[in-house]
Amino acid sequence: MMKKDDIEQLFDRLEGQLSAAEPSTDHQSRFLEKLQSIQPVQEKPVRKLNWWKPLAVAASIALVFMITLSRNVDTDVRELADVSPEMEQTQQFFTQTIEKELFEINEQATPETQAVIDDAKKRLATLEADYDNLKSDLAESGQDKRVIYAMISNFQNRIDLLQQVLEHIDAIKNLNELKASTL
Description:
Layout: H1 4-14, H2 27-38, H3 52-74, H4 85-107, H5 114-141, H6 145-182
Helix pairs in contact: 4-6, 5-6
């Protein structure tokens, strides 16, 4: 640290050597030109935010997550067709038969038979809900034969129900025809 006396001595020693004149008006521009010629000013490039890259990465991760999640959900429920090729054929047979019976019932629907059809559809929905529970049981039990037999029995019960409805519709039609012929 310099003392006050040391500073005064310094100025006394440098007296006459220091220039006290004002710089010229173009001094600043000349100084900047020299500075730029020595080291050119490098501007940093302006970075634009590219949102599409992070967004694409996030979408890809979300897609992989959803696929993984859907595969995990599917393994908790098994169909009868997953047991063996024979069971797949059995399931296809029952499914096609049920669809055919439902189509036939809907074709023969009349105002007189609508109540019977609506009741049958409610009972059919109950049987289908039971079948969904059996699918979960099949996945948990590891293809227990009792669950497989219960699934087949469920299909048979649905077909029996639909056949009974068709017979009931035929009976109603015959009764209406008999009433019409006696009048």
